[in-house]
Amino acid sequence: MPSEQRSVLIVDDEHDIRELxxxxxxxxxxxxxxxxxxxxxxxxxAANRYDLxxxxxxxxxxxxxxxxSEISGRFPNxxxxxxxxYGNIEAAVEALKAGAFDFVSKPVDIHxxxxxxxxxxxxxxxxxxPQDDPASRLFGESEAMVALRQTIAKVARSQAPVHIxxxxxxxxxxxxxxxxxxxxxxxxxxxxxxxxxxxxELMESEFFGHKKGSFTGAHADKPGLFQTAxxxxxxxxxxxxxxxxxxxxxxxxxxxxxxxxVGSSAETQVDVRILSATHKDLAQQVxxxxxxxxxxxxxxxxxxxxxxxRERTGDLKLLSTAILQRLAHAMHRPTxxxxxEALATLEDYPFPGNVxxxxxxxxxxxxxxxxxxxxxxxxxxxxxxxxxxxxxxxTAAGPANAAPAAAQGADPRTLxxxxxxxxxxPSYIEEIERAAIQQALQENRYNKTKTAAALGITFRALRYxxxxxxxx
Length: 472
Known about the structure:
Helicase, Ruva Protein, domain 3
């Protein structure tokens, strides 16, 4: 790291801490300036450009949070890391929410400090994303998708935990992979885990690893998911499925940045960024007592919502074309054209399975189409009036917004069954679910574990739905 190009501002009122940071960063070839107060830091920031700022939280004339907010606003290309008192996770979370890149706790661990500095400085040297960057699959020019891509670009520059919410099939893992690919951790591993697919009795071993002989069947040392993701990103998909006992252990691992393998007496330091996702309302799960408030607070520092496909139908043509190009390329055949009639049929469909369902529909249509044009009949979709989607949205919004179309001046004689029968829409949605499950079962040779994964739901959720729909 050429010293003339890399400089760090250190803000701390403790002389010993400043000396330690100057010595450590100086050995990395970095030029350092120091300040003991907020006002002195502001003066240095006005006169110099810095590649990184390290600031204590408590200063004689103000708070490190003030600097975090100011630098994030005035110097967005300068990452800021905060130094917090040991165990003061609340302060660290507040700093991350204010825009801090990361945090270190006192007493400062030199190894972790060096790693943090390298990752922060790597933000300045990252080249353009490769052609296979996951972001290239986040298609859409709708307002919701443009805003999502812009937010991803911002959070990718941070180390803050991100919780990704959205319905099944919207692309939450794709968003997580994009955040990783655009971050300073992109050279490290991206480790996804479906929290609902791990048997409860094996969770601790899977997450934290185990030592040889620690339990029956432990024939060798095995690293856990945290160790495997060291230096990269750990993506906790369907995090709401974690049992409460495991939530406690996971919280400690995230806060302390250490794990203890099963059967070991020593803790191992880990450097991972936590991304999580669920199709459930996690705040509601907290209210119900099935998810710990402190873990929710820790993983939901930044929240990202992935919009359902029915809210971005204007993207359907672009999405469908891109999906068909990818599928046709894999099949070594020309990319078919989707007819205007087929596109209209797709735009009238509510897509309970979102983008994943669209991919399945187009893959089936590609296989069944006779020529190089996808017609409406090739989609094998029922015609669903747009009013049915409006009814679904109104029902979800609450009774106050669920007034029938007739009450709004529409002619009852022109209404479809979906408008006039309050039970028709739920029944229709259940039929779609039933058909999707039956198709997935057939495609996966009735392997329930694979079927659940293909549908993007947990094994337990699949088992519930099989019982609900009477599918043997």
